[in-house]
């Protein structure tokens, strides 16, 4: 079944389950040069008058280079039958292998932004904000030791949702 445009505000799901338990692929790039990564940290809501999604990417991730280099990115969600593909995309680097091909995913471009044909839900986003999350700004005194033993801190991205596609 093909993706078609829907109104973001008509979606009915639990965002906590959608992001944290089902996971998402964050994807960016241009024709012939795309990378993706699995993520389970994020949020959905409204920001600066836009329907928006927030996602977090560690400094070491290859996908960060793609998100930083492009004005847009997508987030894609899949049904449970794609769990192995999402595991693969979260454990191997696109620097080393063509993980999109290995995962059996098909890239399509929507308004110049890569999304996956196999997704059950995809959001095409333009970057509204990107901010490095330095440890000296952490309010929780345990966050650094618990989540950043390797000192590989995140950048937070907020994307304004331009188009939502669903099956």
The largest β sheet comes out as: 8 strands, antiparallel
Q: What is the H/E order?
A: EHEEEEHEHHEEEHE
The CATH superfamily appears as Electron Transport, Fmn-binding Protein, Chain A
State which percent range the strand residues make up.
35-45%
Tell how many strands the DSSP assignment holds.
10
Helix content: 10-25%
N-to-C CA distance: 6 Å
For this structure, what is the CATH class? Mainly Beta
Tell me, what's the shape?
A: globular
Structural class: alpha+beta
User: What is the CATH topology?
Assistant: Pnp Oxidase, Chain A
C-alpha Rg (nearest Å): 15 Å
Q: Which second-level CATH architecture applies? A: Roll
Unreliable stretches covering 5 or more consecutive residues: none
Average pLDDT, to the nearest integer? 97
Q: Can you count the helices?
A: 5
What count of domains describes the coordinates? 1
